[in-house]
Structure prediction request, 357 residues.
Amino acid sequence: MTSALDLLKRRIAASGPVTVAEFMRVALAERGVGYYATRDPLGAAGDFITAPEISQMFGELIGLWCVDAWERAGAPDPFLLVELGPGRGTLMADALRAAKVRPAFLTAVRLHLVEISRPLRAAQEQRLGGFHPLWHDDLTTLPEGPALIVGNEFLDALPIHQFQMTEQGWRERGIDLSNEALIWTLLPPGPQLGLLQAAHKRAKPSEIAEVCPAALSLAGAIGARMVEEGIAALFIDYGSAASAIGGSLQAVKAHQFCDPLAEVGTADLTAHVDFAAIAGAAREAGARIHGAVAQAAFLETLGIRTRAALLSAKAGEGDRAAIAQGMARLIDPRQMGSLFKVLAIAHPDLQELAGFP
Ligand code: SAH
Prediction:
């Protein structure tokens, strides 16, 4: 059977070096061979762990955030609840359980899941089958109507282009083949240099800049959708609030960093999310932007400490330690609290949303 590595090697041998974006797309998402397309990578026995898998409080608070945003938007019935890259369905299961505080929300909700992974779709079916979700490969097939859209650690998996400053100016980084092995290379200058943003103009030789056109067009499309049809999208991911110079592409396997070119299709590949660029693209489409704020500030404003105290009051000794530990991982600035940011793209009339100052 062909692997993502074989496929890339054949493609490079046939038509020359590929961009980092094409490398990432094939390694992660190519049908039948990509990392996400073929496995469930989550959890202690897998490659990495995410906030909803760390603590039920994460999904619960996002569920309450959704109920609040839906009410602020006039409680439309029906409305779409969309999750992008739902993983094992844990966040959504916790969110919908918390949303029971508003039975009308659960009557009005139509659940849509955007997911390319067959194994993860199966896990989502198991967790969320009772809500009769519909699955999509991307956002283009979503029906019309007001929508709440949630994506946790989704944007970081979208393909980025990398550029490197040289004495001769910017060059796009690519991947070539040498003696049957993948190697880094610089591509000849071309129109793709137009992807670089104003924030990247001042760089020193050897410095790297990253641009994620897939995330920018997604943000633009969601912004336009919010203006036309209403409610809001919530993105949680790691990255910086302001655009910055620097390479952040990383490969992770079994909870350890590894060489991205050595583990093609068998390791997770991610890059930091440029929240300023995402906000800019959605704002240009007419949407209102909230954030980005640090995950700790968002979760504390939504009441994670109160929720933890309530859960602890009902828990046994061992569970109490796990609840405290889970909360610390989510909000401690040395863990996920400040590296992770939260950004909302909303209808222009939604002047306030919970969790954002
Ligand atoms: N949100 C989950 C999973 C994060 S991992 C959690 O927090 O636990 C990234 C998720 O996005 C996985 O479900 C993966 O299969 C999905 N995914 C990655 N690239 C995708 C793409 N291009 N389109 C749709 N889903 C994608």
Notes: The CA atoms of residues 200 and 245 lie 6 Å apart. The radius of gyration is 21 Å. Residues 28-29, 36, 42, 50, 52-53, 85-87, 91, 114-117, 120, 152-154, 157 surround S-adenosyl-L-homocysteine (CB under 6 Å). The first strand starts at residue 18 and ends at 19.
